[in-house]
Design brief:
By secondary structure, the protein is α+β, with helices and mostly antiparallel strands. A hairpin with a 7-residue loop joins strand 3 (161-164) and strand 4 (172-173). 23% of the residues are buried. It has helices at 2-20, 26-56, 64-73, 77-107, 116-159, 190-201, 211-217, 237-241, 267-283, 288-291, 313-323, 326-329, 334-337; strands at residues 58-59, 62-63, 161-164, 172-173, 182-188, 220-227, 233-234, 262-265, 293-297, 303-308.
C-alpha cells in the first residue's frame, strides 16, 4: 500500500510537470525575425545613402565620384604627373649646383672645377630639363582639369530634363535615352527654331516630308532650344507649336514630328549646360541666334559633334549607324545588326 501511494504521488508530480511545458510562441519568433530583417534593411539603406552622400561631396567644384571616374579613365596620369614633377625638381636642384660651379669657373682660382664651357653646358642641360619636365607636369594638370570639366558637363547633360512632344507623355532625363536613342540638341533664335520646325513638320519639296519617320527609324530625338536676344534659354514648346509657315512650306502640322521631338524642361539646367557652347561659338565668330548650334549626342552619352546651322537630317539618316559606332561597338545589338 505504501508503495502504491508513493507511486501515485510520483505520477501526479510527473503529470503536473508535463503540463508546465507549453508550445513555443511562433508569433514571437516571427516578430523577432521580421524586426531583425527590418533592421538589416534599414542599416543597408542607411549605408547606401551614406556612400551616395560621400560620392556627392564636392571639392574644388567637382564631386568625389567625378574625380574617381577621371582616375579610372586615365589611370596613369597621376603617375606621369609625379614623375614629371619629381624630374623637374631634381633638374632644378642640379641646375642650382651647376650654376654655382659655372660661377666658380668664371671667377677662377678654385681646384677641381671644370672649364667654363663644360660648366655652362651642364647649366643649359639642367635648366632645359627643369623647364621641359615642368612643362610636361603642367600639361598633365591641364589634361586632368579638362577631363574633369568634360565629365562634369557630361553628368549635367545626363541630368537635363525634357518633355516629349507626344501628348500626356511624362518628362524624362536625357540619361534615360542612353542605349536607345541619339539626341540632337538644336539651339538658336526664334527664326532658327521656325526653320527647324518647318524642316520637320511641313512639305518643302514636291513629295511628302518623311523625315520624322526616317529619324525615328535611326533612333534620333530632336530637342529644339529657343534662345532670346540675350542668349537665355526660354520656353520653346509654344514657339514650336505657333510657328508660321512660309510660302514654300506646305501642309504644316506642328504635331507631325511629335514622335521624334522633345522640349527642354527646367530651363535653368539647360542654361547652365549650353552657356559654354554659346560662348565658344560666339568666340569663333558665329551668329548663334540666326545660324544656331547643334550638339549631337551618341547612344553612349558622349558628344559626336558640335556644329552650326540646321542639323543635316538627310545625311544623318544614311550615316548615323556608322558615324557614332553603334553598328560596330554597341554590345547587345546583335539581333539588329547581325554578328555574334
Amino acid at each position: 500500500m505504501m508503495r502504491f501511494t508513493i507511486f501515485t504521488i510520483f505520477l501526479a508530480c510527473l503529470l503536473a510537470s508535463a503540463r508546465a511545458f507549453t508550445s513555443p510562441q511562433l508569433s514571437s519568433v516571427r516578430n523577432t525575425q521580421t524586426s531583425t530583417v527590418f533592421n538589416r534593411n534599414k542599416i543597408a539603406i542607411s549605408s547606401s545613402n551614406e556612400k551616395e552622400a560621400a560620392l556627392a561631396e564636392t571639392m574644388n567644384g567637382y564631386t568625389v565620384k567625378q574625380r574617381l571616374r577621371e582616375e579610372v579613365e586615365s589611370p596613369f596620369r597621376k603617375v606621369r604627373l609625379a614623375f614629371f614633377a619629381f624630374s623637374s625638381a631634381s633638374a632644378f636642384v642640379a641646375f642650382y649646383f651647376s650654376a654655382l660651379v659655372a660661377v666658380k669657373a668664371n671667377i677662377g682660382g678654385y681646384a677641381d672645377i671644370p672649364p667654363l664651357d663644360e660648366a655652362l653646358t651642364q647649366v643649359a642641360i639642367n635648366i632645359s630639363g627643369a623647364l621641359g619636365f615642368g612643362a610636361l607636369a603642367v600639361r598633365e594638370i591641364k589634361v586632368g582639369q579638362g577631363n574633369l570639366e568634360r565629365i562634369a558637363k557630361g553628368g549635367l547633360l545626363a541630368r537635363l530634363v525634357v518633355e516629349p512632344a507626344v501628348e500626356e507623355a511624362s518628362k524624362r532625363t536625357l540619361k534615360e535615352y542612353r542605349r536607345n536613342s541619339r539626341v540632337i540638341i538644336a539651339a538658336g533664335g526664334a527664326e532658327y527654331i521656325r526653320s527647324l520646325s518647318m524642316s520637320l513638320c511641313s512639305d518643302q519639296l514636291a513629295d511628302e516630308n518623311i523625315l520624322p519617320a526616317a529619324l525615328a527609324g535611326v533612333d534620333v530625338v530632336v530637342v529644339p532650344v529657343l534662345l532670346d536676344e540675350d542668349y537665355n534659354v526660354v520656353e520653346t514648346k509654344a514657339a514650336w507649336r505657333s510657328a508660321i509657315p512660309g510660302e514654300n512650306d506646305r501642309n504644316f502640322d506642328s504635331a507631325r514630328a511629335d514622335e521624334v521631338v522633345c522640349f527642354p524642361s527646367i530651363l535653368s539646367m539647360w542654361q547652365e549646360y549650353i552657356n559654354s557652347d554659346i560662348e565658344t561659338a560666339k568666340g569663333q565668330g558665329f551668329d548663334v541666334l540666326s545660324k544656331g548650334i547643334t550638339i549631337t549626342v551618341k547612344k553612349n552619352g558622349r558628344i559626336l559633334r558640335r556644329a552650326t546651322g540646321l542639323p543635316p537630317f538627310g545625311d544623318m539618316v544614311g550615316m548615323m549607324e556608322v558615324a557614332d559606332g553603334s553598328k560596330f561597338g554597341m554590345p547587345g545589338d546583335s539581333e539588329r545588326y547581325g554578328g555574334p
